[in-house]
Amino acid sequence: MTEATTTSLNQPAAQLAASPIGATRRGQRAPRTLWGDAWRRFRRHRLAMTAACILCLMALICVVGPTIYQKDPKRIDFLLSMKPPSAEHWLGTDDLGRDMLARLMLGGRISLAVGIAAMAVAMSLGTLIGATAGFFGGRIDNLLMRITDLFLALPVVPLLLLLIFLFRDRLRQLMGPEMGIFWLIITVIGILNWMTVARLVRGSFLSLKEREFVEAATCLGVSRWAIMFRHILPNTMGPIIVAATLSVGAAIITESVLSFLGLGFPPDTPTWGRLLFDGQNFLDLAPWMVLFPGFCIFITVLSINFMGDGLRDALDPRQRQ
Fold first, then answer.
1. Distance CA 128, CA 279 (A)
2. Could you say which of 169, 178, 180, 261 is the most buried, measured as most Cβ atoms within 10 Å of its Cβ?
3. Sequence ranges of the domains in the chain
4. What is the pTM for the complete model shown?
5. Domain spanning 35-59+100-319, CATH class
6. pLDDT tens for residues 238-291?
């Protein structure tokens, strides 16, 4: 070992950092990634960032709010029936004297849980069907797309009402009044809303399976399922995430419609749609019973849509500079 090499090995770390080579390494930027670029573009989208902050605030209020605002959402007091907003009851009371804010926070938990769970069912089913159809093609693609067209031709709302009307009593007996209708609603909503995701994933797979990295993986002997889920599927996450974001809002609206029609959760379960249903007969006497649940649904779904627009722009590879 030469003297120059020994001297360089014995140099302290501070001298190496002060050297031109150390300064060059220290001054290098971290390598840019697809998700890092998407996050930077999403942060520049002011409307989407505002919507994301509103959604986080709504979720925080629904989850943490009951520990601060300690009112029993199911406590009935006829002496406080239809009281307007006051210092004691911030958003007033309903026709049975129950606190509206406490019921809104509890209903927000249920409505958001239904939206997220129904989205998970629809995304899983749509991604699996779309990926299978786009990757294998041929008869499998033709069969799966005809099934998709069949589901697209079905009248969603009447079929949804029919299925819930037929199976809700049986599931209530098996799983209880709340859990039975919860799983029934998210399953039916998810099964009837996977078609758009399947078409998006299928189109992405048809485009990506002809790329060079897929041919290279095939030549290396990688199995079809590994190519499908480890190489192609991660490159389709952009459209899937955007579709998942928008489907949450659609599921919340669908659950609200079911509860408003009286086919959703039991009367003592205060979802936002159920609160609208309970307050429709008292719109002249107690308008806050309808305005506050309607505003929660409106602002949540609007924020989800704005955030979906921001994610669509952020995850679009054509926006990269």
1. 41
2. 180
3. 35-59+100-319
4. 0.78
5. mainly alpha
6. 788 888 888 888 888 888 888 777 777 877 788 888 888 888 888 888 899 999
